[in-house]
Automatic annotation (TrEMBL):
Listed CDD domains: FliM
InterPro entries in UniProt: CheC-like_sf (IPR028976), Flag_FliM (IPR001689), FliN-like_C (IPR001543), SpoA-like_sf (IPR036429)
Localization per record: Bacterial flagellum basal body; Cell membrane
Domain of life, source organism: Bacteria
GO cellular component terms, semicolon-separated: bacterial-type flagellum basal body; plasma membrane
Listed GO biological process terms: bacterial-type flagellum-dependent swarming motility; positive chemotaxis
Name of the protein in its database record: Flagellar motor switch protein FliM
Membrane in keyword set: yes
């Protein structure tokens, strides 16, 4: 183990002891050197590497940016969403950490197994509802278990729209299809997995107008297990060097062949003054820089590609390709 994780209270107590002289820094260093035996809690066995946690954080940082845009548009007010932390803890600890009454959305993420929980803090939930119903986005003092059927429907409709951007945020790693399954307000009624199973909790800080709160996403390890290898830097390095397969090459070729590009046969060009241009009239002749015996230059997408000669085909003007254009030479 790299070391024990101290709580904020323990950190504050340690700093206080060092500042008052109750504990000496050198003494603390000597004790750490002598004490090589550390306690290990098997209930908090780490299932994700730091590399994988960082990859999940990057995915949800992208999700937070997309969610900021979505909520700002839907609620018609300034909204800010950012990732605060990404931790792996037992599911039981996650359930204890959320309020006794909150907004819990349980979603499936096919083709992956298991279910993901999105917990929306009541302050944020009521701020969303207030904006949807035409208010200023104030949370008020309402209790989340008193949601009416209309309020529940409005909130579910808004949260359903967040699933599409979650699919987009995950698209670089895996193709998932998130779908809302349950809407609950009491975490004690949710037994998605066994209490001792490890989950990753992604905490998002959300600000809607003057109201702030958290949205927590609980993802079980069993859900991510089939794609866990894709969350490593080694996978990204391999993916970036991977050569396209025959099917991908054929798809690219088909799309390119169906693209349209402008083809222009240049009779020639010249420079005239603004005065001469303004005095042009019907029947006037403009002398070009290319003789009648010289081939035309055919441009494809604005780039010279061929030399050609003019003519007619079935009473229509046409050109006949003579050769590829030799850049820098007179044709």
């Amino acid at each position: 183990m790299a070391g024990d994780v101290l709580s904020q209270n323990e950190i504050d107590a340690l700093l206080s002891a060092l500042s008052t002289g109750e504990m000496d820094a050198q003494q603390l260093k000597d004790e750490n050197t002598k004490n090589r035996v550390r306690s290990y809690d098997f209930k908090r066995a780490l299932r994700f590497s730091k590399d994988q946690i960082r990859s999940l954080t990057r995915i949800y940082e992208n999700y937070a940016r997309l969610l900021t845009t979505l909520l700002s548009a839907q609620l018609r007010t300034i909204t800010q969403v950012s990732v605060v932390s990404a931790d792996q803890i037992p599911y039981e600890e996650f359930v204890r950490s959320v309020p006794s009454m909150t907004v819990l959305n349980v979603m499936s993420v096919e083709p992956l197994d298991g279910r993901v929980i999105m917990e929306v803090n009541p302050n944020i939930a009521y701020a969303m509802l207030d904006r949807i119903l035409g208010g200023k986005g104030e949370a008020g003092n309402k209790k989340i278990d008193n949601l009416t059927e209309i309020e529940t429907k409005l909130l579910r409709n808004l949260l359903d729209k967040t699933l599409d951007i979650m699919e987009e945020a995950w698209s670089s790693v895996a193709v998932i299809n998130p779908e809302m399954e349950e809407f609950e307000v009491n975490p004690q009624f949710l037994q998605v997995i066994s209490p001792n199973e490890i989950v990753v909790v992604i905490s998002l800080s959300v600000q809607i107008g003057e109201e702030t709160g958290m949205i927590n996403l609980c993802i079980p390890h069993v859900t991510l297990e089939p794609i866990i290898s894709k969350l490593s830097v080694h996978y990204w390095m391999q993916s970036s060097k991977k050569e396209p397969n025959e099917l991908e090459v054929e798809q690219i070729r088909t799309q390119v062949q169906g693209a349209t590009v402008p083809v222009v046969a240049m009779l020639g060009q010249t420079d005239i003054s603004i005065e001469d241009f303004l005095s042009l009239d019907k029947g006037d002749i403009i002398r070009l820089d290319r003789g009648v015996n010289q081939p035309l230059i055919v441009q494809v997408g604005g780039v010279p590609k061929f030399s050609a000669q003019p003519g007619q085909l079935k009473r229509k003007l046409a050109i006949q390709i003579l050769d590829q254009f030799k850049g820098g030479t007179s044709l």
